[in-house]
Specification:
The complex is a heterodimer of chains A (180) and B (499).
Chain A (H helix, E strand, L loop, with lengths): L8 H28 L1 H7 L5 E7 L8 E7 L12 E10 L2 E6 L10 E3 L4 E3 L6 E3 L4 E3 L8 E2 L1 E4 L2 E6 L8 H5 L7
Antiparallel strand pairs in A: 1-11, 2-3, 3-4, 4-9, 5-6, 6-7, 7-8, 10-11
Chain B lengths: L1 H14 L2 H9 L1 E3 L9 H20 L9 H10 L4 H28 L8 H24 L3 H14 L6 H9 L6 H33 L16 H11 L1 E3 H4 L1 H22 L24 H9 L2 H25 L11 H23 L8 H4 L12 H12 L22 H4 L2 H10 L13 H12 L12 H7 L6 H7 L3
Classes of the chains: A alpha+beta (180), B mainly alpha (499).
Chain lengths: 180, 499
Amino acid sequence: MSTDKTISRRGLFMKVGILFNGLVVTALAVPVVRFLLSSVMRGRANRYLSWVSLGTINQFPEGETRLATFRNPYVTPTDGKTADTACWVRRIGGEKFQVFAINCAHLGCPVRWFPQSGLFMCPCHGGAYYQDGARASGPPERGLFEYPYKVQNGLVTIQAGELPTPGASAALLGETPPCA
Amino acid sequence: MRLIAQIGAWFDRRLQLAAPIREVSEHPVPKNTASWWYVFGSAALVVFLLQLATGIMLALIYVPSASEAWNSLQNLNHDVTLGWFIRALHGWGSNFMVAIVLIHMVQVFLFGAFKFPRELTWVIGVFLLLMTMGMAFTGQVLRFDQDAYWGLGIGASIASRVPLLGPAIVKLMLGGPIIAGATLSRFFALHVFVIPGMLIGFVGLHLLMVIKLGINEWPMPGRLVKKATYEHEYHELTQKDGAPFVPYAVWKDLFFAAFVILAVAACAVYFGPFGPTGQPDPTIIQTAPKPDYFFLWLYAVLSFLPASMETPALLIGPVIIIGALLLLPFLSGEGEKSWRRRPIAVLTILLVAVTLATFTHLAGYTPWSPEMNAWSSDPIPVRFLQHRTALERQGALVFQAKQCHNCHALEGMGGQRGPALDSVAVQLTPDQLIRQVIQGGGNMPAYGKNLTPAETTALVAFLQTLHPAGQAPARDASRALAFGGSGQNSSAVRLSSRP
């Protein structure tokens, strides 16, 4: 009988076999993990974001807040209508705008604009915001998310492409919440 | 007959399954476990099998594509023969499954069945509960309508609150930067392959342990579980006072299983399938998304959490709840099993049940949400307008036009976000009313920028008329001394005389 330390031929082959499988799995794990995390890694370099047009500046009367829609810059063939996104465009005056995400800063439900009372109201949990996007009442911790915008050649364009969420907003939109 | 027996023998010689099946079905169980209280586990299994069968049938037609899913559901509902019925069976089956799993869990908890040596059975049961909830959420997403779309937004908003990893988790969950095609595809994969696969595996383990460890005996007050002696005592019990599971106990499971399937089918026929509601078009914003009933309590909780509590509660709450469930059998693995001697266990169940029921009930009419159309659809009751001055009626108009009605009810009509104003004049003096309207506060937005002084004057004049017939409106007693006269309307006068 062999002592504990000797290794039989079969035993060695089994261990080499396990090691071999381990190497194969490790080698395969790299592309598999990269595939599974593709949506995360791609977003890391802000490659989802680009400038999209909301229409000509004349579509947005001064002093008013209007609903605008745009096609998300990053689309896949099966997106259908879901790649269409809405946002609220407030033209303060001249080329001064505020473009708010449709998503409530609480949990992302679509906020509605009530021009008569100058409030955005959320249908889910009762969040409300003033016309400048600042939090008015309810559970949201902050004001509405704002898209960076610019006016070029008479077109209002915004930098968009990602779902604004409470956790991601600061990094995503590079903006501090608007103050009352 | 002989031929059938011969064919059976041929197969069994090769499969060798008859002996283990006979052993399992005839294993002795304590006689007193042949109770109607012990039928919920098998009922959950049967509903799960129903879900598998109906799910496969739905997959024959359903298209897991963001651009096609909603149409394929319409096709199922309206064109495919009895497609509506299979959808309804699957939808009602999911409701029943969540309910039965919860009842099963409560029964196991109250009967002390999680104690030694069945700790792992309980732990796997907790995993099964989580997977059932996972199936419920992903299933709701596959019914790809407005509720599903915005429900995903809620899920993403919650996930995004995880420190550091939040944004990455959101993109992983959505399969991209927004809720779109890739999102539905991965929820389809989760709902149809990943979670059911795990469920089948864990259900198998769960059942294996029930058979190997034996069904929990009927708990007798005073008969304590001790690790040293329990297994021996249980063995003795099954020998002395046991009976074979088949047919002694199984007939109740069979009856209840059939009854549950019948109930699911009856609900399916009577109430029909769930949705789909409106198209999942994010540009249609006239929608008030709501989750299915098993998540309504959570929906309600989310509206009550103060802003500062929200992220900690969302991130730590689940860890505490799941942790407590997993630790339960290890903290309380021995001792009394009977609910008659475990008052805290009974009170815990009652507390949890009342809490969940209350939140679910509240989510049914969402008092925290403005009633979006109240300002244009709920008229001010006539009695609040009769015998009023022109100014007061103008104030009523302001009340409607400025959407006050969306949050404040009059005679039970309108929103319930803020207090009902039927008798607000008794509670607040004119000055207080003006301050509240202009500056807001106490969860009310400030309307100072959106009301002209004239509008505020009219509105407050109207609000001052809102008091019960026999009760005078509140007034500031110092006013009469400071200004002379009644002083009742002096603030309004002062305001309207502002330049």
